[in-house]
Design brief:
Helix content: over 70%
Number of domains: 2
Structural class: mainly alpha
Number of helices: 7
Order of helices and strands: HHHHHHH
Amino acid sequence: MFELKTLSKEAVPAAIDKAHRYRLLNEPVEAESICRDVLRIEPENQEALATLLLALTDQFEDRLNPCLGMAHEVLARMTDDYARTYHAGIVAERRAKAHWKRGGPQARHVAYGYLREAMAVFERAATLRPAGNDDAILRWNTCARILMSHPELAPIEEDVAPTWLE
């Protein structure tokens, strides 16, 4: 196949900046590739890990299963409790949105469940946040607003067995 070329250590900051730009341009595959190049030479680079996780979650609508597994692997490599918890909330939130957009008979219930999971994780992250960082609160509020403005997103009624559990 191909042998990947290696970045120089001096190129890491610029490469991470490029990964951020590619995410903003809605090109998550490119951002993912750049982060993986950075992580080949700096395996513990936390900014590259966070950006990689976001690039993976950007792909949930099209490639949920492979990207979800990779996102969990990246989460396990994050060393800061706040960052790991906050990003776990993002994984749950974006998973909810991917299920909701895909549709299907149980999508509204699945999306509701993952949004509630995200909210619980964001609440945990808010207790760990550094002073002046209210990102977890902002994300919690976003999830709450989605649920308040979309009443079709609802939990499964307890007396109704969902067909996807059978």
